[in-house]
Amino acid sequence: QVLDGAGLDVDFHLLSPKGETLVFDERKSDGVHTVETEDGDYMFCFDNTFSTISEKVIFFELILDNMGEDGQDQEDWKKYVTGTDLLDMKLEDILESINSVKARLSKSVQIQTLLRAFEARDRNIQEGNFDRVNFWSVVNLGVMVVVSAVQVYMLKSLFEDKRKSRT
Length: 167
What we know:
The chain crosses the membrane at residues 135-155. Keywords: Endoplasmic reticulum, Membrane, Signal, Transmembrane, Transmembrane helix. Belongs to the EMP24/GP25L family. The chain is α+β, with helices and mostly antiparallel strands and 167 residues long. The chain has a domain at 2-88. 49% of the residues lie in helices and 14% in strands. The protein has 2 helices and 5 strands; from the N terminus they run E-E-E-E-E-H-H. A 3-stranded antiparallel β-sheet has the order 3-2-4, with no helix packed on it. The protein has a two-stranded antiparallel ribbon with strand order 1-5.
């Protein structure tokens, strides 16, 4: 997501480890992309060469799901458990609910981070508008002062006696 900069747009490229283009977005202000991955190094690039004058502030988040560790962690606890099947069933239920809470908390953190990014972009737009309004208000005030001074001078010149008086 582009938070600040002229036009609020940027190019985005995502390349696979084989060098294939997976995602290519031109002049987008935000985007969400989901990709099935394979082993290797991926490359992503935010490109602003079309707008060389203005710089951009970018927010991005990389979320990796199902890294393969969850299945191993779930099986590790079973070697420490001894007892009846009823006990195993209760431990599995507890583990399932803990994993559910963990997944929901993780999703909540991701959503809050995304909302913070939206808020930051809106704040930057608002501050830009505030500066622009203040600048043009000062210009307008200056024009009004000059016009009022000219009007006072013109009115004063209407009532001046321009005849030379002889005494």
